[in-house]
Amino acid sequence: MSERVLVIEGYDARLYVERGHLVTRDGFANEGKIREIHFPRGRSAIERIVIRAPGGTVSMEAISWCASMGIAISFVASDSTLLNCLIPDAPHDGPVKRAQAVSAVTDDALVLARYLLTKKMDSQIAVVERDFGRLGIGSDPSRRGAVAQIRSCIESLNQAQTLVDFLTLEGRAAQIYWDLLVATPLPWREWALKRIPAHWAAISPRTSGRRERVRDATDPFNAILNYCYTLLEVEARISCEAVGLDPDLGLLHTDDRLRESFVYDLLEPLRSKADVWALELLHKERLHPAMFHELRDGIVRLDPDLTGLLAKTLMPRFRKAAVEIANDYAKQLRRIDVPRRLVREAPKPIAVRREMWKRSACGYCKEPLPRKGLKFCGRHCYLRYSVEVAKPIEKAQVRLAEMRATGLSPGHGGQAAKKRGAKKRGAKISQSNRRRVLVPATKGTSTRSRSAAKKTG
Fold it and tell me: Looking at the predicted structure, is the pLDDT value of residue 129 above 70?
């Protein structure tokens, strides 16, 4: 199986390990559609498993098998809500997470918020100018007007100073963007237009869901977007783990229990791309009523065949886009100077250290060194430095004279004598050294003659 994404559906889905192989079993027994696939270890191309089954089991061995092979497992509810995501562990980046946490309470928060929203609005402008025309969305004057209005929102971001201002500008740009999409006919097959409700034929606003929830979509296109945004959320969550970002420390989406706020921050610049990619796939496949199920309260759910098609086609594209934005955001965080207390000084950036290496010179001739880690150009400069600058022999002689002046000659008595086990003799030698210092020797007089003179005197 060459696909990178596997979608598991059905009421008795299973994920387990048998004789070293990962086994997936899903489908609908009442329809006679049961699928069982064996994935050998090391020869599987699967990178993502999306479980959208209302019933079934996943064994601990299967979770361990997937973690060792770098496969992420996502659990998605029938309303396209992400229930959980099991991601293989990745290298951690403490400095990035610390900068991410500190930035929310410093002036860097304004810079990062402008960065995210500018990316989102630039993406909206790009899809309006490049993609909406070929997909038959809006007229040329309406698209040009929408682009001009979104650009004015980008200019206003430079003056925004509060979260309310940022969200107001984001909402205005989103409204302009969605005004172009609303009422655009969907690519239904001709025979299907007579069998679907009238409001299914075109794109409806995002606020048209039941129970005041966007997730409870009452039209096919918004139901598709809900599922696509969930797949995008999975890839954003995995990208955060890959680059060392904390998914909980949101900026535009404030902290909330049981919500990974930063993941939704990272989704904002990618939503318009997801819209266009979903529309491209719909134009290619052409919609028909069997792709959707309408519940008694009018809420629309996707058919398993459509969810599998969306996941296999769009998740690889979502993955690339999510990794790019996560890496860009991590680069922004690495430029932040984090104030520190009770910890050692933060290491200097690699660029500064390289400049220091470039400026380092030889300790003797002061010429630039050929590479980092050196102190001298070569052995010649090292020897010249030792003889002319360090002067170890002269310093040793001065130190020896100081020790002898206090009666602590290292060659006689003191610690040297104690190590030899001659404590009394060492003490006598030490006293003799002190007498030598107090009675300077005269020229031509021996030590024995001086001691004899003392006795006679």
Answer: yes
